[in-house]
Specification:
single chain; 313 residues; alpha+beta; six-stranded mixed beta sheet; three-stranded antiparallel beta sheet; 12 helices; 23% strand; DUF2971 domain-containing protein
């Protein structure tokens, strides 16, 4: 539910001591990605598809020679086991084939900048480096890009995730997350501006039939829009079969911890099969909160739909 500059999102829970504590304190559990129920979470096998020309363009734009030249020089002297090395094509090729992926990338980038200074175009450089015909070299360069992606992806292993939904009436979520309709659905209303300004990253999940394709230019770009797009691809992309969840997730810097959320609990909806005992437990907690609505989810007669009715004692 969205109104003016506020939005209400929902969390389906079983009724237990932990969820009742959420009603009392407004703190919610941010799970680690590996504890979520979708095995693809935070590990989407993003594809990197590049032509040889796109590879050259990418590395030409990405690095400044003032940064990588000293690093490469040191690596080449270390490889030569001395304070100098022979500046021959044979030595450069041997160094390229025997060194680390990071150093291979530096050699490749250096050659690109060298040829650009000589006036060669991107097409000329592709031809000179024989990237169209040298499958091994091209594969190594693509692999270096994928490894950089994986290193960034690993950083998300320790993030925290709170999954919320725009829906409070989905039968599947009541069955899966609402303790087979014996639990409850907690409605939290957020001021959108305050949510955006908080330490949490709000991400609407993007549901796709196909796996996303990674754009390296955006991946290595440090502009805010590009960074947010990469975060969304990494941490908020799911298969289309999950679309019914209408999920917004809040991502925190740490996970496996209860955190205070920048919103207010404004409604509690009990499942159709919640017991009288649990009903009384929940009501005992929220009865002092006069602005919290207390409702119960019931089936609408003659339909497959659920509808939340205000509960009358």
């Amino acid at each position: 539910m969205e109104e003016n500059n506020a939005i209400t999102l929902y969390k389906y829970r079983a009724i237990n001591d932990w969820s009742l504590d959420t009603l009392r304190t407004g703190r919610m559990w941010f799970s680690l990605p590996n504890k979520l129920n979708d095995t693809f979470e935070f590990s989407v096998p993003v594809y990197i598809r590049l032509t040889p020309k796109e590879v050259v363009e990418h590395f030409a734009k990405r690095f400044n020679p003032e940064y990588f030249a000293p690093v490469l020089l040191e690596a080449m002297m270390e490889h030569g086991r001395g304070d100098s090395f022979p500046a021959t094509d044979e030595y450069l090729l041997e160094f390229f084939n025997s060194t680390s992926a990071e150093n291979r990338a530096l050699v490749f980038i250096s050659l690109i900048h060298f040829y650009q200074e000589k006036g060669l175009t991107i097409d000329d450089i592709v031809e000179t480096l024989a990237l169209d015909s040298n499958a091994e070299l091209f594969e190594r360069i693509e692999t270096d890009l994928r490894n950089a992606y994986n290193r960034n992806l690993e950083a998300g292993e320790y993030f925290g995730v709170l999954s919320l939904s725009a829906r409070n009436d989905d039968p599947l979520m009541w069955a899966h997350y609402g303790d087979s309709c014996k639990g409850m659905c907690i409605g939290i209303t957020f001021d959108i501006d305050k949510l955006v300004e908080s330490d949490l990253i709000p991400l609407w999940v993007d549901y796709r039939e196909e796996l996303p394709v990674l754009c390296p230019d955006e991946f290595f770009e440090r502009e805010r829009a590009a960074t947010l797009n990469m975060i969304k691809i990494f941490y908020a992309t799911k298969h289309l079969c999950w679309k019914h969840e209408a999920e917004l997730r809040l991502v925190s810097r740490i996970g496996d911890v209860a955190l205070e959320i920048p919103g207010k609990i404004t409604e509690v909806i009990l499942g159709e099969k919640a017991s009288d005992t649990d009903l009384k437990r929940v009501f005992a907690v929220i009865k002092e909160q006069s602005d919290t609505q207390f409702r119960r989810m019931m089936r609408e007669p003659g339909t497959w739909n659920y509808r939340a009715f205000r509960y009358q004692f």
